[in-house]
């Protein structure tokens, strides 16, 4: 049907080419089949057709086949329900107003599918731009029903009518929730996930029932922890099914975190923080549940409203922090490394956002958290050491590192931390902590950390020396990032250079450039960068190429090529670079004069190298010649049809 005459195709199937009619007839037979795989294949073909073709003939196809699609809903259970949902949403997304009876079919499908099967269809309907309000209301009710049932079952006493009231009372949903643990868990997790995806969308239903949804999420978490005390028979059975269920706990915590973007009554927000603290304290919480609880807690803390006319944390948040930090201390001492790691990640994010808030600083320094964080730099698990490096670096940036008296860090404490991080960079056997150290050093240099600013040249020299010897390519790549930040600061240009910028960076004044080149030579940046140019790991070589191209653009007016080329050691350096490119990496460059550097930057074909590095790493292996050689090698082993292959 997608031939030259596509625009002139009649919507009447009887006027189509014979082959097209034969295909449609086969699809009709498949849709009427009692074999589910055949029905699934037919629905998949139609999903693809409606997703890619939007001509008049597809309207005729829908008119002819929609009665057969609707007839599938009369079967119990509905066959190939997932494929049916995909087809209906594909038709609805293409041109819904063109397809007669589509909205009615969608409404019927929502009514006939089970609550679990109807969830993805309801979410898809609510994401549509143009959709009848009645259908949107029906779809939203499908998603709300499981949570409405939970609220109704766990209610201590009849409450005021809420926005979930219209979604309650569906006996099929209640039956599904109580039929088995797997059915209950599956339905609740799907409902929570779908509502969480819907929450940030601009086309979400309005008004959005924020308060009832908050209440439902808190209730589910309490049912799972066993702290709820439902009085109804349904509530008691739900509690027995859900207690200790980690999968529902994780889904509910994710949903609770998503709801932090909205507002709610203070009483409900207090309940949210209470249930989050309950999960963080509970010894029954698994490591994954704790990770989700930390993430949800962070989202709620960061969304806390600011007190008007005050730049500090509001009283409710400060009170919660005083309860939270002892719990964090305990979790940093957990025998489970995943828990220690989650605690450190949470601390890093809190410090990044609140490091300058007086209330947070006071509460943190009064606790043992900074000292415990520093101790975890020597944790036996490499992931934890890496997270401890990041957390300690963030604490140090805000002057919140550990001190015996609990005061803000003096210079000696900061210096000892710098020495310890350099020791980790040089000696740690695992790559994750070393990568974290290089990232912290880059942030410190970029942000003007006090210890770094005191002697930036010595700091950069030590970091680059360690990074250049590292076997981990990510450490070497991060070392080049640090070198670029240092170069920009020397040239008086804050902020990182964008490699995708259309215009080249402006050239630096000759005096500034000459001084910068001398400093860069002293810290042996060029030894590192030129060696990295021929690194066996492509990302490192690309980063080095970008760095040297950036510097060459800055060095454009610095002397003539003849003057620069007169430097006596240029020829020997070029010979060394050629040996490096050939794979002989033993001989060092030694100290380079600024003039020799400028000459090298002009003589090395950096653009050509960049183009070579931009090619895919397997471009040679995927060439036609290489594929033919592979075929010959294969038949040589098999000994069959060798002559034909030649």
UniProtKB/TrEMBL annotation:
GO terms for biological process: cell population proliferation; DNA damage response. GO terms for cellular component: cytoplasm; nucleus. It comes from the Eukaryota. Keywords: Cytoplasm. It is found in: Cytoplasm. Belongs to the BRAT1 family. This is BRCA1-associated ATM activator 1 isoform X3. The gene is BRAT1.
């Amino acid at each position: 049907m997608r031939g030259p005459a596509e625009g002139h195709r009649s919507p009447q199937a009887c006027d189509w080419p014979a082959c097209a009619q034969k295909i449609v007839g086969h699809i009709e037979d498949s849709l009427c089949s009692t074999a589910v795989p055949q029905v699934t294949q037919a629905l998949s073909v139609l999903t693809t057709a409606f997703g890619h073709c939007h001509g008049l003939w597809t309207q005729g196809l829908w008119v002819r086949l929609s009665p057969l699609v609707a007839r599938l809903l009369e079967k119990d259970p509905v066959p190939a329900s997932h494929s049916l949902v995909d087809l209906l949403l594909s038709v609805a997304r293409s041109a819904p107003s063109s397809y007669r009876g589509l909205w009615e079919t969608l409404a019927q499908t929502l009514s006939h599918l089970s609550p679990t099967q109807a969830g993805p269809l309801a979410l898809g309907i609510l994401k549509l731009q143009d959709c009848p309000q009645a259908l949107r209301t029906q779809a939203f009710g499908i998603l709300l029903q499981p949570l409405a049932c939970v609220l109704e079952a766990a209610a201590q006493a009849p409450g005021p009518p809420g926005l979930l009231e219209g979604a309650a009372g569906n006996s099929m949903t209640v039956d599904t929730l109580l039929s088995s643990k797997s059915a209950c868990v599956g339905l609740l997790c799907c409902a929570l996930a779908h509502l969480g995806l819907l929450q940030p969308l601009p086309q979400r239903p309005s008004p959005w029932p924020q308060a009832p949804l908050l209440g439902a999420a808190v209730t589910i978490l309490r049912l799972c922890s066993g702290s709820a005390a439902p009085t109804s028979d349904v509530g008691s059975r739900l509690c027995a099914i859900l207690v200790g269920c980690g999968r529902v706990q994780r889904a509910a915590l994710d949903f609770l975190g998503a709801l932090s973007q909205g507002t709610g009554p203070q009483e409900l927000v207090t309940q949210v923080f209470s249930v989050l603290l309950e999960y963080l304290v509970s010894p029954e919480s698994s490591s994954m549940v704790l990770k989700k609880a930390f993430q949800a807690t962070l989202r709620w803390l960061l969304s806390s409203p600011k007190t008007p006319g005050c730049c500090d944390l509001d009283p409710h948040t400060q009170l919660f922090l005083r309860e939270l930090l002892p719990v964090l201390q305990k979790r940093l001492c957990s025998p489970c490394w995943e828990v220690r790691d989650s605690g450190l990640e949470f601390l890093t994010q809190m410090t990044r956002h609140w490091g300058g808030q007086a209330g947070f600083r006071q509460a943190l320094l009064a606790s043992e958290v900074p000292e415990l964080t520093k101790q975890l730099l020597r944790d036996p698990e490499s992931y934890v050491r890496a997270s401890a490096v990041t957390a300690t670096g963030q604490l140090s940036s805000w002057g919140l590192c550990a001190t015996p008296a609990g005061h803000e860090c003096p210079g000696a404490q900061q210096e000892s931390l710098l020495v310890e991080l350099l020791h980790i960079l040089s000696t740690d056997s695992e790559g994750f902590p070393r990568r974290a150290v290089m990232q912290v050093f880059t942030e410190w240099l970029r942000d003007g950390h006090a210890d770094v600013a005191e002697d930036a040249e010595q700091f950069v020299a030590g970091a680059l020396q360690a990074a250049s010897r590292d076997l981990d390519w990510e450490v070497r790549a991060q070392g080049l990032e640090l070198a670029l930040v240092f170069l920009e600061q020397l040239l008086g240009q804050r902020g990182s250079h964008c490699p995708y910028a259309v215009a080249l960076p402006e050239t630096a004044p000759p005096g500034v450039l000459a001084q910068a080149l001398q400093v860069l030579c002293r810290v042996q940046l060029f030894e590192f960068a030129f060696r990295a140019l021929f690194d066996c790991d492509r990302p490192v070589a690309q980063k080095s190429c970008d760095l040297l191209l950036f510097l060459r653009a800055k060095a454009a007016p610095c002397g003539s090529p003849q003057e620069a080329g007169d430097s006596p050691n240029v020829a020997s350096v070029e010979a060394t670079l050629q040996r490096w490119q050939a794979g002989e990496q033993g001989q060092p460059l030694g100290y380079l004069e600024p003039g020799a550097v400028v000459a090298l930057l002009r003589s090395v074909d950096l653009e050509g190298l960049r183009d070579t590095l931009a090619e895919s790493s397997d471009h040679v292996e995927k060439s036609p010649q290489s594929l033919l050689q592979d075929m010959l090698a294969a038949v040589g082993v098999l000994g069959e049809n060798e002559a034909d292959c030649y």
